[in-house]
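User: I'm designing a mutation panel for Alpha/beta hydrolase and want to avoid disrupting the core. Could you give me a predicted structure to guide residue selection? Please restate the sequence first so the numbering is unambiguous.

Assistant: Good idea. Sequence first, for numbering, then the predicted structure tokens:
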Amino acid sequence: MKKQILFVHSAGPQNETQGSSGLIRYLEKELGGEVELRHPAMPDPENPVYADWERQIIEGFTDLREDAILIGHSLGGSALLKLLSEEKMEPRISALLLIASPVWGMNTDWDKEDFLLAPGFSSKLPENLDIFLFYSAHDNVVAFKHGAKYAELLPSARLKQIPGNSHLFENGLPELVEEIKRIKLK
């Protein structure tokens, strides 16, 4: 049985050459027939509103089997963390992989209030959820310190520092593919 993946893209333009589209194409190429990769269009990605993204992500859960994998790129990761810490979602999720996701409220540059996580959010995440964090060492959009902060807030998460300065990973993220292949369905 193929692994199912729900990929929630970043904010900003999302046409064929922008946003998360290069990373999605890379995953489709590298994982091909091994997975069923869903990547729904998020509403108004250039002016994101959490309530709208939440509805779209919940719709993306439709027909997911037990042990699906969630991937959130940048704002998509923030939205997934917020949803999973505030709502009881079915089916059970096997793993959450966050790529260059900001910690909202960490400083004045990152203060999008509707994406803020509640204090103690980590205790409300699903039990036995494997969490992986992927951050470029020198990302000029979402600095590595965001990954370090999430690693502090999510002590069971595994943080992977990726060499370079990519935020969009247009040319791929082999470490992500390796981790997806390693994930065992529970």
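For picking mutation sites, this is relevant: The chain has one domain: 3-182. The first strand starts at residue 3 and ends at 8.
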